[in-house]
What we know:
The structure holds 2 protein chains of 2 kinds. Chain A has helices at residues 3-17, 29-34, 59-72, 123-132, 149-155, 163-166, 238-250, 264-273, 293-308, 321-332, 334-342, 358-366, 403-423, 438-460, and strands at 25-26, 52-54, 76-79, 96-99, 106-109, 114-117, 173-179, 185-187, 214-221, 227-235, 258-262, 282-290, 314-318, 344-348, 380-385, 390-398. By secondary structure, chain A is α+β, with helices and mostly antiparallel strands. In chain A, strand 5 (106-109) and strand 6 form a beta hairpin. By secondary structure, chain B is of the alpha/beta class. Chain B has helices spanning 7-18, 32-36, 45-60, 66-76, 84-91, 98-111, 118-130, 150-155, 173-177, 179-194, 210-215, 218-234, 245-254, 267-277, 306-313, 350-360, 371-383, 395-401, and strands spanning 157-159, 167-170, 199-202, 239-242, 263-266, 289-292, 319-321, 365-368, 391-394. Chain B folds into 3 domains: 7-115, Orthogonal Bundle (Fumarate Reductase Iron-sulfur Protein, Chain B, domain 2); 120-274, no CATH class; 281-401, 3-Layer(aba) Sandwich (Rossmann fold), CATH 3.40.50. In chain B, helix 15 links the parallel strand 6 (289-292) and strand 7. Chain B has 18 helices and 9 strands.
Amino acid sequence: xxxxxxxxxxxxxxxxxxxxxxxxxxxxxxxxxxxxxxxxxxxxxxxxxxxxxxxxxxxxxxxxxxxxxxxxxxxxxxxxxxxxxxxxxxxxxxxxxxxxxxxxxxxxxxxxxxxxxxxxxxxxxxxxxxxxxxxxxxxxxxxxxxxxxxxxxxxxxxxxxxxxxxxxxxxxxxxxxxxxxxxxxxxxxxxxxxxxxxxxxxxxxxxxxxxxxxxxxxxxxxxxxxxxxxxxxxxxxxxxxxxxxxxxxxxxxxxxxxxxxxxxxxxxxxxxxxxxxxxxxxxxxxxxxxxxxxxxxxxxxxxxxxxxxxxxxxxxxxxxxxxxxxxxxxxxxxxxxxxxxxxxxxxxxxxxxxxxxxxxxxxxxxxxxxxxxxxxxxxxxxxxxxxxxxxxxxxxxxxxxxxxxxxxxxxxxxxxxxxxxxxxxxxxxxxxxxxxxxxxxxxxxxxxxxxxxxxxxxxxxxxxxxxxxxxxxxx
Amino acid sequence: xxxxxxxxxxxxxxxxxxxxxxxxxxxxxxxxxxxxxxxxxxxxxxxxxxxxxxxxxxxxxxxxxxxxxxxxxxxxxxxxxxxxxxxxxxxxxxxxxxxxxxxxxxxxxxxxxxxxxxxxxxxxxxxxxxxxxxxxxxxxxxxxxxxxxxxxxxxxxxxxxxxxxxxxxxxxxxxxxxxxxxxxxxxxxxxxxxxxxxxxxxxxxxxxxxxxxxxxxxxxxxxxxxxxxxxxxxxxxxxxxxxxxxxxxxxxxxxxxxxxxxxxxxxxxxxxxxxxxxxxxxxxxxxxxxxxxxxxxxxxxxxxxxxxxxxxxxxxxxxxxxxxxxxxxxxxxxxxxxxxxxxxxxxxxxxxxxxxxxxxxxxxxxxxxxxxxxxxxxxxxxxxxxxxxxxxxxxxxxxxxxx
Lengths: 475, 403
């Protein structure tokens, strides 16, 4: 750090310490670097290291920070746990790293049939809390043990949950409290069970990619938990598996809450890591739901009926929830195990095709990286939230490539993802629309679409103080 | 570091190992530091690993200031080495040896004379000079025996003066010197006498070296294990039981192959076997609600969860209740990783969080089987003025009360 930057760090830190208690401001080199890193393996550039990390404890403190940032024209990057996979949590320039961790209260209002929580609440903890009231939290990311509610709101992601089963996270959000980039407070939505008809301000923020405000409180409808019925179905190949999923939709079957798949190569690894006998082929795991156990079982049978029309190698009905969790864990360990055992870094992509061409898209994803200049020779694996028609090819990228090559590799893989999603008419369904995906957004929705978002951003945040770089795109 | 393997090689290897973390950050979900601090990114396993990584890289580039190095030292020495992150990482399929890497980072800092923390240094010097980390005279090590009854004193052989024994009770530094823990050693003597075991203690027992390894002093650890193994072999020791899980872990997992000929048990395992054989007969009732706090170096590190519980269940009328977090999920007391010797930043003390969990379980007694957990939890009870509601006892002490 040169003298000018050092002076800037001092100045920013002193200002922040006038807003929040000193103990919640860090300017140590290591905190500034680590707090700005995300799941990508390549390092920050020096110009991307924040001046300071601040942990405000109230919306008032956030407001003051944003007002100060506007006066001094210092970018503010909002951070939860940085588990987002499209690069949105990584700063692209010096600035203030604003952590929302301390906004982590949760209150359940049974008589209103909703709960309120801060954006810093850990997803798994919120799920546990609402679970005590017999309810289900409609968001289930793989990173739920660390992911925070604020981040899931910005992406409006239901993550591994099948959207067509119970809808997206935002469908349950009654309203939010927000601090706008200029420091103003805004409350959106309603405390009633009926969400606004017509303009719903909540929609600017839930699924707003963090562009327009800092969410400081979330109000969500309580969703009663379900009864479950589980099954595993094995197929000879990915094509017949995906055609089975198509049938499930075409035959208007009740869509499961969770429906995961792994190709045979990937499944074998997961099963082996968890000490299970190797599967005979590609695998579908699914959980049907109902208000009674019988209803859930009935729905499971209907799904199996559709899948059976594609001649699966076997169907295993699971009656024991522990067995279900064990078999689901085979899917969850794959990326970590492969990263460690191969000494490489796992990079997954998200390809969202239309239903009609799902088999073709899945087959292309089995050869996702073939022919790519940088990543063409790397190992490719395939798993998917197949019920949501959401495909995750995964690539192992060498750790010993230098940072610039890794950046290029990741960009190449995002470009390939964009190419396939465009070809099949989809869009990002789990990880957000911008940052590493900005070029996709422009191709998908044109300059008109992109300028539309930019003009809204400019109107709300004329100094481009809040999370700059997300909309512009990050390399 | 030996000459063939330079400090730079060591640093390069460590650098490579830290990059094996795939940044899923799941380790934050189980790390006690996250609960006891403000939860900055560097106050959790992933952040500590990344700090090591950046520290080494920037040190190679000569861009670290003295102040940066001190910050790095504080980050590395904040870890309790409880191992919760290792378990989480292994469950996720990756299995990065996080604690081992953090301890390697500490070794690097010690070699570069940046680490350890000031009072840890004093503890290490005391191990060099006096054979214990508490600055106590080596000659006072057996003072805890003075309060034993004549019968018990007679039963306790001094090795090697009193000849060979079937079992060596390795008392450890804390139970030897800490007044509040000496009763645990005496309780063990009472139990061994009760079972008519031919046992003894070392005349010149010295530290097992665990603090040296946790704090990162390789040289001191090498010296200590050489002296101890030499003694064990020379005196024909066949079977050792330890009071501290830290000594147990060191002997089992960190001592060289020569110890493999010696059966090593934590005392709870030994007593559990004795109870099963009918040699430890417990007759008296203790009608109390007891919860068991799993010491990390017994549970998470060595998978010993059942023996302590079996002993407590073997006491008539004991109502054993579990805390919300138990066995491998149990929360660290905060005393491991060299933290017994220096203050590290804590907004809420881990021991007080743990005490809260015991009180939530409505327990009247917190049973544990580790001197450091005992001290930490006892201090928490005192500092929160809960002496009238709950007490901390070692399992050995509870067993003696029930004899």
